[in-house]
Amino acid sequence: MISAKILGVGSYVPPRIWKNDDLASLLDTSDEWIRQRTGIEQRHWVEGNVTTSDLAASATERACASAKIRVDEIDCIVFATLSPDHEFPGSGCFLQAKLGLSGVPAFDVRQQCSGFLYGLSLADQYVKSGMFRRVLVVGAEVHSKGLNKTPAGRDVTVLFGDGAGAVIVGPCEGSVTEKDSQIYSTHLHADGQFAKELWIAAPGMANGNERMNAAMVEEGLHYPKMNGKAVFMHASKRMPEAILEALEKNGKKVEDVDLFLFHQANLRINEMVGKQLGIPSEKIFNTIQSFANTTAATIPIGMDEAVKAGKLKKGMLVASAAFGSGFTWASTLFRW
Ligand code: COA
Fold first, then answer.
1. 86 and 24 in a common domain
2. So what's the pLDDT on residue 298?
3. Contact of 139 with 164, CB cutoff 8 Å
4. Looking at the structure, do residues 90 and 235 belong to the same domain, yes or no?
5. Cβ(143) – ligand 1 distance below 6 Å
């Protein structure tokens, strides 16, 4: 059986920064409220007609440079996003055209905050099976154009940022020992009975006999709605479970792990996860302070930032977990 590994990582965030204070009067919020509840200090939001696939294309070019491959060596695209360029076709197709990869298969993964790890799992299986050799897994979001930027939307709007992160997954060469770079396992879960705890109702084919109309816009059904407390509670339970599942599968303990890359929804959630598992805080790499929640992009952005900061070095054992809308949750254990 072939083993797969992450060959390189890259990320891109749009240049325009919105500090918490920049949102204060717009949303009737404050820097103090946002920092205390979430840890967020700022977020990047796109300007003009920049799209999700634009951000993904920039992150992809950087991931290819990091993996030391040409863009035209990518033989499969897996694009995780909840903020697609258009309802259909999938954003993977728009990205594929921008990358000039005509003929290469392009998937969209719709698992929200767990989308990157779901995508990584697909890539891992494809490489292990020998079907593809250079799989792009990219998570990207443009949230800023879809948020309610009035006080009525403040509970959700302050949480989200725009950005993209990408990895290239390929086969390990030669005989692989336990200490070599590799993806050991991925673990995927969902519980659809909580689908409406964090969701966007419209447009949608389940809205009576019209997918979208003026009354739905008037009601704000096109904006994300969240039961923040339910999300917090389930995330704090499912992420530790998913990490333990990955460790158990591979005969490892929490203390064997060199770095934890968690989804970035709320600093308090990650602190609770760390506390439950007894992880020293310096082993958890958080980026939410600078980028807020970029949904499918948080984990690859974190990976890239950790490399740049010298916190993620070759040979390190890394555990990663995510939780989000669906509810969906996932984890992986890999050696960098
Ligand atoms: N600024 C100022 N006040 C705000 C606010 C904001 N941005 N958003 C909400 N509030 C107010 C509420 O109106 C409420 O006021 P009230 O007590 O006068 O009614 C008060 O703050 C408390 O609101 P509540 O929703 O109970 O806050 P909370 O303690 O549950 O924290 C979250 C809210 C969103 C920070 C928290 O629930 C959370 O982080 N949940 C997880 C969200 C998440 O991770 N989402 C992404 C999923 S991947």
1. yes
2. 98
3. yes
4. no
5. no
The band of 164, judged by pLDDT with boundaries at 50, 70 and 90, is very high
Q: Domain with 238 in it: what CATH number?
A: 3.40.47.10
Catalytic residue numbers, as ranges = 113, 263, 293
Tens digits of residue pLDDT in 211-268? 999 999 999 999 999 999 999 999 999 999 999 999 999 999 999 999 999 999 999 9
Tokens of 74: 């990518």
Check if 328 has its Cβ closer than 6 Å to any atom of ligand 1. Answer: no
Residue 80's Cβ-count burial label (10 Å; 0-12, 13-18, 19+) is buried
Domain C-terminal end among 171, 194, 209: 171
Q: What is the pTM of this model?
A: 0.97
Report the atom number in ligand 1 closest to the C-alpha of 231. Answer: 41
Phi-psi domain of 17 (left: phi exceeds 0; alpha: psi -120 through 50; beta: other): beta
The residue whose CB lies within 8 Å of the most ligand 1 atoms, and thus the one to mutate among 26, 28, 34, 37, is: 37
Distance 288 CA to ligand 1 centre (A): 16
Range of the domain at 13: 4-171
The pLDDT value given to residue 120: 98
- Closest atom of ligand 1 relative to the 157 alpha carbon: 7
Asked if 13 and 158 sit in the same domain, the reply is yes
**176 domain residue, yes or no:** no
1 pLDDT band (50/70/90 cuts)? confident
**Is residue 193 domain-shared with residue 233, that is, in the same domain?**
yes
194 and 115 housed in the same domain: no
Cβ partners under 8 Å of residue 168, min gap 6: 6, 7, 8, 63, 64, 66, 67, 69, 74, 134, 135, 136, 137
Number of domains in the chain: 2
CA of 124 to the centre of ligand 1 (A): 37
pLDDT tens, 61-84?
A: 999 999 999 999 999 999 999 999
The best mutation among 38, 82, 155, 271 to test binding of ligand 1, ranked by most ligand atoms within 8 Å of the C-beta, falls on 155
Q: Is residue 177 part of a domain?
A: no
